[in-house]
Amino acid sequence: xxxxxxxxxxxxxxxxxxxxxxxxxxxxxxxxxxxxxxxxxxxxxxxxxxxxxxxxxxxxxxxxxxxxxxxxxxxxxxxxxxxxxxxxxxxxxxxxxxxxxxxxxxxxxxxxxxxxxxxxxxxxxxxxxxxxx
Length: 133
Known about the structure:
By secondary structure, the protein is an alpha+beta fold. It has one domain. Strands 1-2 form a two-stranded antiparallel sheet. Strands 3-4 form a two-stranded parallel ribbon. The longest helix has 24 residues.
C-alpha cells in the first residue's frame, strides 16, 4: 500500500493525504493521478521520487545529483544540505504517522476502502498528538 502526503514544516502536521494505491506505483504517477493544487507562492521541497513534478506558481527544490566522474560545487553541496535539513522534518512527520503499527506493517485486510480509512485515522492521530504537545 502506498500514499503520498503533504506536510507543513512549521507546524509538522499532515495537510494532505492521497488516496491509497496498491502495489508498486511511482510517487510521481500518484501526483499526476491526484492532480494536487497548491496555493500560489508555495514552496515545495521534494525528493528524487518526484522528479519532473513541477506545479504551477510553486517554487520547488530538489537535491542535485553528483555528475558522473565529477564532484558537486560547494554551492550545490550547501543547497543540498539545506534541502536535507528541511526534508528531515517531513520524514519525522511520516515516522509520526507510522507510529501506528497497522500503517507500518503489512496490511492484510481486504475490505473495500478500509486501507484509506486506516491511513486517515493514523494521520489524524499524528495531527492530534502534535497539536496537544
